[in-house]
């Protein structure tokens, strides 16, 4: 398929200095009109298992979320997306769905869910659900019917005979690998065929070449919209479609990537036949159509689609849609996760590195679309662990200051950090499928530990003697109660940042950004008739002086400090001269024109 629409944003770059003229034009146009709710929303990701346990079993649940909605409202959150809450044997903590139409019993019931929607609505909060289209659980009734070849379900999943080799041993249909180590094909004795699972063995891939599957998944979306959800975050999108088999029914082997010698590691192969197919983009367009049609018939606010894809940006940008067809409003921008240093340890990244990341999205986003910024999620190391603990506030400031949608993973507002978890306590299948020597490379558990509500037992998360994952001992100081009571804290600054984002200048203003030198990242937001704001951040652990931000950003005149991190060692209201700044290590300031 050709994507002719790809209009590059006009981007002027002089050395490290970039100015997105397109953003300026778009922003000025929009200033006279209005923005849809999601364009100015504060999104928040809840990982339900670790948010709040209401009944003392050590596992978070829906009543727990309901009991904390006031916290979200107080934070200034407008919409929250929940990782999966559907019936599941929990082989991949809910990303293996046994019943797409019901709630996991340990999380609650459909009544609890309806209560959640109603309680959220009372507070003006929107609920977005995780939609996991690529696969179901092997315990899903669809899969069991497919195993038995029941009428209508024969081709619900991707089945294949495989081959016999010279010595008569069975071989899988192709060399494809699952994301969690090992072959993507599993032999099913009962049906006498292999099935495809791009994730765990217990996550068979649904067959999107079958119109009945496509229709079924659209029914799932409609069902939850009927129950009042404001949209969906679509999981693992790039994996939906695989290449069709050839005329002899053979699936092609994928070529070696050369990245690793470990033949079980999914990055051993280049996934040219199993990921990022054009059919997948078209499927997302169909889902957007379904959501828009739903709104036309039933009214209410725009329903949103957020798309999870770690693919290259050319592919990601296609999800926004093209000239004729709308796509997802929010294809997740993971540049702060995948960009930077290869090992995802970005603690040494300099200002140029930050600008490169910002620029990668701003320069490739199609004209007229809204940017979004995702700093972390339940699959990644926490921001403080990836970027350094002294940059926790700096990263929140950056995320809130950049133009477009901001999406926070639970706990980042507190500055939660990774907890190293022993092999015995490890729960994530991505790690459990490996071994005690190497599991730490694969585990996603460190960022999934229970949320810290207070300095009480189990961080106020649960009254149980044991929680499903251990709690980070730093909870005694890093928690909601303590940080709310403190004069200054990550949490307090976060709330102020959410408030700051309400300013017209931040919602509509033009954006100019630059690396002034290795240390200093500077971003200016401006809108005619409004005050201008400048974020200045020293991203390194050395102090700098005599820094001239003013001439590069055209930010002459007087400025005073609006918000800052403790590293800045200054005070709100202090006046600053942007043409001759001194910045402490990791200092971050947001200043406003006076
Ligand atoms: C056939 O497959 C079996 C099991 O995978 C393997 O042990 C055997 O060496 C293979 N035989 C040949 C001739 O490749
Ligand atoms: C990241 O790298 C820095 C310096 O290279 C090191 O001190 C730090 O421990 C690393 N952090 C993690 C989480 O690996
Ligand atoms: C810049 O500020 C320093 C003090 O921080 C001062 O000594 C110096 O004279 C200033 N330079 C200019 C050009 O204003
Ligand atoms: C970020 C995210 O939600 N990733 C998910 C992608 O899909 C797999 C399989 O459904 C999950 O294991 C990940 O958590
Ligand atoms: Ca519970
Ligand atoms: Ca698939």
UniProtKB/TrEMBL annotation:
Pfam families: Alpha-amylase
Species, as recorded: Drosophila grimshawi (Hawaiian fruit fly)
Any GO molecular function: alpha-1,4-glucosidase activity
Gene that encodes the chain: Dgri\GH21094
Enzyme Commission no: 3.2.1.20
Membrane as UniProt keyword: no
Residues annotated as domain Glycosyl hydrolase family 13 catalytic: 45-448
One BP annotation, GO: carbohydrate metabolic process
Domain of life: Eukaryota
Keywords: Glycoprotein, Glycosidase, Hydrolase, Signal
Similarity comment: Belongs to the glycosyl hydrolase 13 family.
Signal sequence bounds: 1-23
Enzyme class, first EC level, given as a word: hydrolase
Keyword Hydrolase recorded: yes
Protein name as it appears in the record: alpha-glucosidase
Catalytic activity: Hydrolysis of terminal, non-reducing (1->4)-linked alpha-D-glucose residues with release of alpha-D-glucose
